[in-house]
User: What shape does this take?
Amino acid sequence: MIELPEILDLPLKMLSVIKNINDYNYFLIEGGRGGGKSQSIARILLWLAEQRKVHICCGREIQMTISDSVYKIFVDLIEEYSLNFTVMSTKIYHNITGSDIIFKGFREQGKVNIKGLEGIDVLWIDEAQAITKSTLDVIIPTIRRKNSIVLFSMNRFVRKDAVYSEFITRDDCLHIKINYYDNKHCPEKLIDEARRCKLRSPGDYEHIWEGNPKESSSEFLFSSSKLDKAQKLVFPLSNHREISCLSVDLAGAGGDLCVASVIEARGENAWELTKQVGWSEPDTDITKGKIISMYSEIKPELLILDADGLGYPIYVSIKNIIKNAIKFNGAGQSKRENATNQRADGYMTLKEYIDNGWLKITSTEVISQLEYLKKTYRPDGKIFIEAKRDIKSEHGESPDFADSLMMGIYAINYYSYLIYRESEGTVFLESDFDPYG
Assistant: This one.
């Protein structure tokens, strides 16, 4: 049995990092409060810096001052164990090996700054749940020195986290989940706090202490548990009008997809997303042809099209052919007083359908896009949904599948009055008439 130095008196799970330090390029360490993630990693990095010369960077998405970093953990450990380091105001230096530890915020004034990362041997990204995909895509290729490693420590907010999604299945990444009960050094006071939290608020306990993604949060629009239920809904058989809606979200920028969704009635207040088709063809004539072909095949009672920006001329062309086409203006006026625009209105409507169990969604792609949608409150108290360009920057994809579904539910909720039945078939009223104003 190898006797480790006192500074490596770590929780058992964290010893795997030492054991496998030369076998993996990435280490994903996640869990809740009290697991000792940061304390353990700092100890490991100080030990490494004593063995040989290494350049270490400790970074976060945003770091305004040194106090925002893990700097103090290092300083306290150096003092506690009387280690041979020189501590400077923004840097730590080993007096024998020449190892150095620097601290950095990756995003400055809205842009990713990789200055100083090219020569790094060890990168520790703390609070990695805040790292956006755009930041990750810039930083990771920069850490390319031979035998370099990257460590992530985090407590996920959402299941489709940028770092987690990228590294959890990679064979060159060691994944460790550690919580307070795995940490032999966890103070009894913290253990007691965890017990109290579990009794008081099981949902908070799951995230704070078990390290599971947040079930719900004031910033996220949808509840994970409600989205899970939407995938498992079973509607009872009933006699109902066979209504369907075709909704098309048109690509607004390079890399975005055009997505068509088909939503069908399953009962009086029961709907199911039965089909979604995505394409990236830039030719607008091809896109118009696809929409007209799908309309002819499906024969939906409602057709709603994205009429914002580049989508408007496509909507106008299709409107000349399919008279009952409805336009959706995401930036347009909301029918709700507490929504900033139609897009916010549409997503609030979609949330009602999901929360009330009125909509079945089996598409995992839609679920994952809905899960990370954020809402904010404007000074006037109105709700605003995070812009598509910001979502794309953060998650590396535009929520095109989610937007297409949202538009369909918007049409079903507000425009069902356009449909009525006569003996010769379905008749459509003038769709530009809007009693909601």
Remarks:
- Residues 6-208 form a domain with the Rossmann fold fold (CATH 3.40.50.300).
- The mean pLDDT is 89.
- The chain is about 35% helix and 20% strand.
- The chain has two domains: 6-208, 224-428.
